[in-house]
Amino acid sequence: MSGPPERALAHVRALGVAGVVPPVVAGSSVTVSFHPDRLLADGSTVAQRLAAEGVYRSQFETGISNGGLTAFPGGDRDVWERRMFGGAYGALAAGRPVYGALNLAGFADGGSPRFGSCFLRLDPAVSARASFSHGDSVTEPTVVGTLDTFAGIWAALLAEVASTGAALGLAAASPGEWVEALTGPRTGPGRSLDDYVEAQIHGPLELGGAVQAVVADPSFAGTPTGALLSGLAPRLEYHQGFVLAPDAFPAALRTALTPRVAASVADRFAVPVLNAEVVGRAARAVVRDPGSWARFGSPAEVLQELKYVWHILVLRGGPA
Questions:
Q1: What is the pTM of this model?
Q2: What does the domain layout of the chain look like in residue ranges?
């Protein structure tokens, strides 16, 4: 165990709890969500970079995120990674872990749709080099582990059901019923923006060997982005997608400005409903022509509102 990934895994393994966990844990895939049409600093899109390099990189290298932009020395992500992984990565930028979610419930929209309209479904074998936490890293979780020390996370999920009646977006009257629901058949979306088991994948995430399938939003079918996605993995699949009319965006779910931004996007691109592809067009337009969006704030503020538009699409959108 000489490299940073091995040291990081050993650190988290020691913090976890060994014990028997159900087969559903080992049999579940990690999903890594992303917006394929967002722009990188060089003007290329995420999908173009993935197609060119064949490697999924962390925010420390890409400089973009569908969460907070704190991946720099001394930034929040740097601080929590030092704590979570025992300082294993030091000051490195390249080679940091990438983030996803363990899709225990097998939701069609992946384990953490907050972070993108598409996702990579990883081979379950990749979980052997992943660490996990009960909750997102930004919350500074204390219940962590690896696949062989997952018992503490499993116990925390059952305790969550006992106290709140739900976990991972699944409601149940008891932990036993929740486990039964977890392993039952499921085809629809989980719409779980905040409730997931986060996965941190250590070591290179090379698309050729680690990814079973790309699961895309159907709004990208027949587009150049869709064509790029089809070449990233052995399989390209589509989930049900999310569409919502602009007048159906409520102010209460995010900010009072979000419905106005949603209406402006629909008007600008002359569409009756919003979907992932249209929101991506808007995000690129904000970067390329920020002045035309200035009435909603700075480019960073408008892009944040577009993230909220995506969140509401996930929460309230109907199938495409």
A1: 0.94
A2: 4-238, 246-316
